[in-house]
Amino acid sequence: MTATATASVPREKSEPSADVPLSFSNVSHWYGEVVAVNDITATVNAGITGLLGPNGAGKSTLLQLAAGLQSPSNGEVLVYGKSPADRTSAYVDIGLVPEHEALPGNMSAHAFVAARAALLGLPDIKEATAKALATVELDNVAHRRVGGFSKGMKQRAKLAAALVHDPRLVLLDEPFNGLDPRQRVHMMRLLEARADSGAAVILSSHILEEIEGLASRILVMIAGRLAATGDYRALRRLMTDRPHTVHLRSSNDRALAAELVAHPSVVGVEIAFDMLMVRATDYAAFARAVGPAAQRKNISVFEIKAADESLEHVFAYLVAN
Amino acid sequence: MSQVREAKPHSVRWIASARAIVHLTWARTITPMLLCGMAALVLLPMLFALVFAASGPLSGDPVTFLVDRYDQLVVRIAVPILALLLGTSAFAAESNDGTLMYLVTSTTPRWWIVLVRMVFAASIAAALSALAVWGSGRIATGSSDPLGVVSAFTAASAFGAAVYAVAFTAVALITRRALVGGMAYVLVWEGVLSGTFPALNFLSVREWMLAIAASMTEATSKTMATGPTTRAAYIGAVAVTVISIFIATQRLARPRLSKTGS
Asked: Computed from CA positions of residues A145, B96, B247, B207, in that sequence, does the dihedral angle turn out positive or negative?
């Protein structure tokens, strides 16, 4: 395969259904003459999905469309089979954490979350509020004004307001902004717990390591278009126009390099820092060839490691394409 | 998962959501600057009345004084500006900083959010306007109410403030420059155009206020004698309310949010 990742990644067909947490069908959205989202078709299922893209790629607009804050200029957005822009009942299932620190500063965290619980028609506002605040570890400062909160505390107050009704679809726009490392870990565990309980969590973040550690699936947006979707390791394998870089440690790197260079998938070898670096166009074929090659020369292979399969590399390649 | 799905008596849910809307409205509306502005508008007519009362018999006829001050100061300035501040502040601030999102991403019907907001703004605007009229009347005339002028203008200004507040609440959802839009209506439409083209008096909240005041007191003035009938005022008020609720509900279904994401 020599096609770019964008072209080679199969697009999913969305199937509007009450069981599908979130589906976009040929969704476009433009502000005046600026196209923010361009003909996106995708579904988001239970689990954690990372939404990636450079600044201005349309991530926030896509989340706003999912939350019903914007109506698509074209196409259809459905949350569990309902259009959030047209039916308020869809908000039973939606929790949104916006990017900006938008909070009513004069209210206490407790009053703010309780107001959300009341607006969502919860049967036990007190209990739901207390639970949501405890979940984000704000119960000790619940009666302080949110205007006096640190950025991380505001972020957690927004999360409490988004989770107060136990939504089945959680949309988070840069949720890790302003959180210290401990709070980040706590939020990651929280999101994992939500996903484990069957919720669909979609989060946009520019901190790729966190998405990498959390998301089972990614959606990559570039210039308003959906560039790729799926497991990022699978996406990397599909990028056959970009040779894979593989690091090997063995008992005889030079001899192994000489043996491997003849393999048709290998486009380059290099020995540096006591390590053999091989660039191969077909990762699977190369991996199958290493064992026999080492055996022929009686070489022991200690380590084989794909060096550019991280989310950061995949993202960089997609953006470059 | 979602506990929203569990049943709950409707009346309890409506009341709880109304309380939440009022709480959010109060938090966004009642700022120190707005309080100062509203206090100034309420106290200004009282200040004039205080000067009148302090001058004793030299001041002249209290009825003439009150009708002039009510017309020029309360009906033309204090009432519309009070209503403008109260009507536009919550939705305008929430649209600009993005906190409107917390209202609209809820299961509460849009029309209910709009109605509660309008009732909130209309009630406070009506109460403060009535206080400004009643307070200045008491200061100028003591406990007496010659020709029923204080009662008439108290009722009329409360009515006018409520209508203005309802309309300006809708304006806050229509335009980012709600204050400018509201001031343009008060100054240009009611101030300039209505004076030039008397037919426009039928579409002027100020003239409706004067019509209601004129129907309740025997005191008269030139402006009170030339406006629409009270029937026209009531029909106009109902029409403004219905149209404002309809437009605001439509706008809230497609809110403009300045800051929810990049």
From this structure: positive
C-alpha distance from B100 to closest chain A C-alpha (Å):
9
Question: pLDDT tens across A29-46, in order?
Answer: 998 888 899 999 999 999
| Token pair recorded at residue A58 | 């349309």
Q: What is the ipTM of this complex?
A: 0.85
d(CA A51, CA A47): 13
Tokens 């946009």 correspond to A204
Q: What is the pLDDT of residue A10?
A: 39
Give the Cβ contact number of residue B143 at 10 Å.
5
Query: Given the structure tokens 């109304």, which residue do they identify?
Result: B18
Residue type, B169: T
Q: Do the chains contact at B2 and A98, CB–CB below 8 Å?
A: no
Which stretches of chain A score pLDDT less than 50? 1-15
Q: Which residue of B has its CA nearest to A93?
A: B2
Q: Nearest-CA distance from A181 to chain B in Å?
A: 23
Radius of gyration of chain B (CA): 20
Q: Name which of B8, B20, B259 is nearest A115 (Cβ-Cβ).
A: B20
Query: Which of B 84-103 lie inside 8 A of A, CB atoms?
Result: 97-99, 101-103
- Judge whether residue B262 has pLDDT over 70: no
Any CB–CB contact under 8 A between A80 and chain B?
Answer: no
Whole-prediction pTM: 0.83
